[in-house]
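Suppose you are handed a protein chain with no further information: no name, no annotation, nothing but its sequence. What can you learn? This example shows the usual starting point.
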Amino acid sequence: MAVEVILPRVDMDMVQAKISKWHVKEGDAVKAGAALFEIETDKAAMEIEAPASGIVRNISVAEGTSAAVGSAVAYIYNEGEAAAVPPPKAVIPPARPSAAATVAVPADLAEAPRALAGGMRATPLARRLARQLGLQLSDVKGSGPHGRIVADDVQTRAEARGSTAPLPESPPPEDASRHYAPGSYESLPVDGMRRTIAQRLTLSKQTVPHFYLSVTCTIDRLIEARASLNEAAPRGTDKSPLWRLSVNDFVIKALGLALQRVPAANVTWAGDRILQHRTSDVGVAVAVEGGLFTPVLRSVEGKTLSALSLEMKALAAKARARKLLPSEYQGGTTAVSNLGMFGIEEFTAIINPPHATILAVGAGVEHFVPVKGQPVLKTQMRCTLSCDHRAVDGAVGAELLQAFRQLIEDPLLMLA
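A reasonable first move is to predict its three-dimensional structure. Written in structure tokens, the prediction is:
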């Protein structure tokens, strides 16, 4: 009997994926567990293995084509078994038009839905719309995957109740090309990663009330400690060091410890409540071709600098190869964006929901600083904390930055 090859869900909020490459063609023999095809999501490219051994038939989704999660994209037959009539191609149904469609970011591209009482799940956009309309989500029937409630469902329920309050309409995007002469530019397609970055960060700036706090850290002692630790690093058989610490490794560790000192900043805004996290899970922005990923280092407060350094290098390599697993980029309680290696001295970063903070780190720059009336050359680094004012007040953000600066300026505290 033929075995269906199903397009799997590799991300909690994933509803479709693009098959970027088939490793087999119609009629090829495969072994169970062999690489069958690759799928591309907005976060990663992943190889999907054959669920059984046999002959591949009825490939219904071509390379470069998207299909709905859960649909059959091919079948595997026993050798000598006749192939059935090819099934219809997996087609992604068009979204049902509604007032919710005017929101800048579709519900199915918003952050991962949160479980509600009774096992229900709803997207953040659906929860926000329900609050605006005065609806209880327990009265709404979900039409999304596994009964998840999406914004469309909330709007439909409100219309049935006769008390609609549609979301404010967004003007259609302007065709910027009309400002430029034909032939004076090259039109580049927007891929899934770039589209998701645009949608999520637009949503963040529209819905998250940002405020910013900056501090100057003197990092001469950190530079000395880094050099000493790197010099003392154990060597492998080829005499090369087994690890090499970067300034960013110290930044990640300091932020993780600071969040433990100031737990009121280690939070997530969840609408009707604030989630205070027990561990410091720090996302770190990694630039890749065409965009960026933010892999997450878990429980930073309990890891050594060398362990963090090795883990960060491994995650960065996977991010650049677009091989991150969902468990390696989902969640997190804060994030770090460091542009110091590009010579940027100071900048502000946009919060990546569901985080309530993000730390923007600039380059270390030498300045003459007055010490007892005499100019002394110091290396200083500017850091700016972006905060979600719904969950973090100014005094809490300031306390977090104060704790962070103390650790950065006295790095031996991170080793205690």
